[in-house]
Write a structure and sequence with these properties.
This protein has about 290 residues and is an all-alpha fold. It contains 12 helices and no strands. The chain is elongated, with a radius of gyration of 30 Å.
Amino acid sequence: MSGKGLGAVSGGGDDGGVADAASVLTQRTLPDTSEQNCSALHNGVVMSGEPHEPGNSSSSSQCSLHVWSKKALLSRKEIPKHLQFNPYIETGYRPLLSAWGCLMSLFYFHNETINIITHGVPMMYILVWWRSLLPWADITVPVLPWTHLVSTVSPWVGSTIYHLFMNHRAGESCYKSLLHLDMFGIWITQSFGALTTVYASVSCLSSAWIWRVLAVYCFVSLWCLYKALTARSAMARRRCFSLAVVMQLFVFYLRSTPFGGGDPHAVIHYVMQASHRPPPPTHPSHATPAWCFS
């Protein structure tokens, strides 16, 4: 209401008219203040001059509605620079939030929801059903199944945490730490996840050659980790695992030669990333730890 209109009402000497005008003015200004407070609370910082009253149920209800509405999401131009890396997504960004606010973003839709779900569901599946994922009794090297299990779950854990907390209000330093955690999980599965295949592929060689190949593979894996943590772009992060992939392809080729080991029937399962359980031996002389063939 304009000052002229309010003066006209008060000029009439009617106290009731003044009260009505003040009530109307209050009703028109309260929603903006409430929305500002809700936005401030949702972002985890106090932006308005008025302190938030926890006992105000009306304000809490309005804030709850604000958090669950599309008003809580921002456009690409409204978020910090370190989160503007995807030029193909213009809307649906979460504002900077506290850790609790990031967790609560699980319950409304935004542009990271699909990423969180597609990484979180496999993570929970592995953590719940890990005992049934491997033939534990058939593996004679105890460290290999545990290495494989950790390698299987690591990328899902790192990526879920990264996508869920990437908009934390701690800023760019926190984002970079989460990105490093994500890359570390990917590195574990790319490096140690293939350790079982590398070991099986060279199992028919002498012990000295087995340790040499494993030592070289571990050195290459550590070099890939260094490149992944120091990469400056998404493409550089993809290329950092190229040397490890080349070595994995080499030992994969070794399986097809007289010097290679591993079950020959498992090759198709390795390519298709499907489970494989070797057939039981038909003769005691065939019951060897490795599938060495000439």
